[in-house]
Structures are given as C-alpha cells and as structure tokens.
Design a protein that fits this description.
Layout lengths: L1 H4 L1 E5 L3 H12 L3 E5 L3 H10 L2 E3 L2 H5 L4 E4 L4 H9 L13 E4 L5 H12 L4 E4 L2 E2 L1 H7 L2 E5 L3 H14 E6 L6 H29 L4 H9 L6 H12 L8 H17 L5 H18 L7 H9 L12
Parallel strand pairs: 1-2, 1-4, 2-3, 4-5, 5-6, 8-9
Antiparallel strand pairs: 7-8
Helix pairs in contact: 2-3, 2-7, 9-11, 9-12, 9-13, 9-14, 10-11, 12-13
Length: about 300
C-alpha cells in the first residue's frame, strides 16, 4: 500500500504537524518528518514514520511536501534556506504550505518554485490538534489544477473538507485571515464573558450549559471555555498565535484602508496576556488576564503550578 501512495514529507511536527504526520502514517503513507525537536522526531518514529533534523533530508525522494510551520518567514526558510526543500524537489512535485501568512508572501514563494517546475498549493488549515490527529481538518486551498492534482491524495487523508478556492495562490491565505479574525475575536469575547460571569459569582458550569444552548454560543466558546472550567491552559493553540494572526489582520486592514476596530481590541488583549507571561499558554488564557485585572476567581489551574 505504501508503494501505491508514495512518500510524503511533513515539515514542522508541532501540535498540528505531528498529528497530520501520524494520520498519514495510519493511512499507509511513507512519512518523513522534520522538526527542530528530537522529542517530536522520536514521536513520529514511534508512530511508524521517519524523523530528520533538516527539511532537505526529510523531503528527499518525496513528491509531496507539507509545511506546517508558523509564518511566511519560517516557510521561506523551509523552502529556500541552506537546507531547504527547494534543493531536492523535482519538476512536478508539490509543496503544500499550511502556514498563516499574507497573500503576497505566498505568491512570491510560489513564483520562485514555479521557476523549477514545482507546484505550490496555498493551503492554510483549521481545526486544531484534535482534528489534525483524526484527519478531519478544514483546508482552505488555492493553486493551479496541477498543484491540486498532485496534492489531493494526501489532502483527502488529512481533511474532512478541502475548500477549492480557485487557481490564484494567495486566496487560501486571505480566506484563512478572515477565519482567524473571527476565531481571535470569538476567543477573546468568550474569555471576557466567562471572567465577567466569575466576577458576578455565577456558577460557570451552568453559564456554559446555558450559553451553548443559546444564541450567544460560538464554536470557539464551546471549544475553549472547557479549558477555563478545567483550569487547563496546556497550549492547544497559544496566545502568541493570535498575537501573530491578528497582527497580520491589522496589516491587511491598514493596507486596504479598512477599519478593523473589533479585531484591534482583541489583539490588545492577546498582547496584554503575552506581556503578562502567558504567551506560550492556551489562548483561553485571555480569561486569566481579565481575572487578574478584575479580581474575578476562575477555577484553579490544573496544568501546572501558578
């Protein structure tokens, strides 16, 4: 079965990338992974894949390379750095970029790859670590028909839904930024609401039950508030992710001469949370910041000592 599916490289074995790599292993792919962390590489080896410490080594003899790093700068390093995958990719291969970035950055990298006949699929992802591990991601993809044709076998394993957003690289990146605007605002709003509920001495479990059955609910409220209720701020997605992503939203809005005051207010809460030492913690930690400011009492932390 592996011979039929071929070999795929996953660059970046964080909470999303490792889950994606393991999903591909489980589906019968020959998976080579790359990460700076030997722990992450070893976890992939234990799941049946191979672990390497440079992108080029992982991508050797791979027709599909999936990059699951943080931003455009890291993606560029994965591609064109000293040990980048562009050194080993061949004409007809496909590079699938899952990082959140501005459309223009994706377009520049795609143009460079095209010079050597390599396809670039702009394919940001959504769904979190749990859906990455179960093959149920949402993928917002744009690129040439050839890029889709080359990447589709792997995407079919990883995604519950791949949104085909057209031939223009950068459309996927732009749609992802709309998603991140909403996600960041919704998490900040959920954190504010639950901290206010705590300040009012309401029973938080009851508030969660009521809101999830009422018009005020959102996917992020339903997903993140349990972290607050359990006092578990293990980073499924960290505060710093939304410092980055809502910062990109503000850059886009400024370039478009578009006011985005609600996203800007949410960004300030993530910045304040990071400044208070919570940058590496779960993004629901914005609720902890509200609690610190207001004196509200949230459930005690369970993931580590205060």
């Amino acid at each position: 079965m592996t011979d039929l599916l071929g070999k795929v490289a996953v660059i970046g074995l964080g909470s999303m990338g490792l889950g994606m790599a393991k999903t591909l292993v489980g589906a019968g792919w020959d998976v080579a992974g790359c990460d700076l962390s030997e722990t992450a590489r070893q976890q992939l080896r234990e799941a049946g894949g191979q672990g390497f410490d440079t992108p080029a080594l992982a991508a050797e003899n791979c027709n599909t390379v999936i990059s699951v790093v943080v931003n455009a700068r890291q993606t560029e390093a994965v591609l064109f750095g000293e040990n980048g995958v562009a050194n080993v990719l061949q004409a007809g291969d496909v590079f699938v970029s899952c990082a959140t970035m501005m459309a223009g950055d994706a377009q520049k990298m795609a143009a460079r790859l095209l010079q050597q006949g390599v396809h670039y699929l702009d394919a940001p992802i959504s769904g979190g670590a749990i859906k990455a591990a179960s093959g149920d991601l949402s993928i917002m993809a744009s690129g040439s028909p050839e890029a889709f044709a080359a990447a589709d076998p792997a995407l079919d394993v990883l995604a519950a839904k791949t949104y085909r957003l057209g031939d223009k690289v950068g459309t996927g990146a732009s749609v992802k930024m709309i998603n991140q605007l909403l996600a960041g605002v919704h998490i900040a709003a959920a954190s504010e609401a639950m901290a206010l509920a705590a300040k009012m001495d309401l029973d938080l479990e009851t508030v969660y039950e009521v809101i999830t059955g009422s018009a005020g609910n959102s996917w992020m409220f339903e997903n993140r508030v349990p972290h607050i209720l359990q006092g578990d701020y293990t980073p499924r997605s960290s505060v710093e992710i939304f410092v980055k992503d809502l910062g990109i939203v503000q850059d886009i809005a400024r370039a478009e001469r578009f006011p985005a005051p609600i996203a800007a207010a949410a960004l300030q809460m993530y910045l304040a949370s990071a400044g208070a030492g919570m940058g590496g913690d779960d993004d629901a930690s914005v609720a902890r910041l509200y609690a610190q400011i207001s004196g509200a009492k949230l459930p005690a932390r369970t993931d580590k000592a205060e």
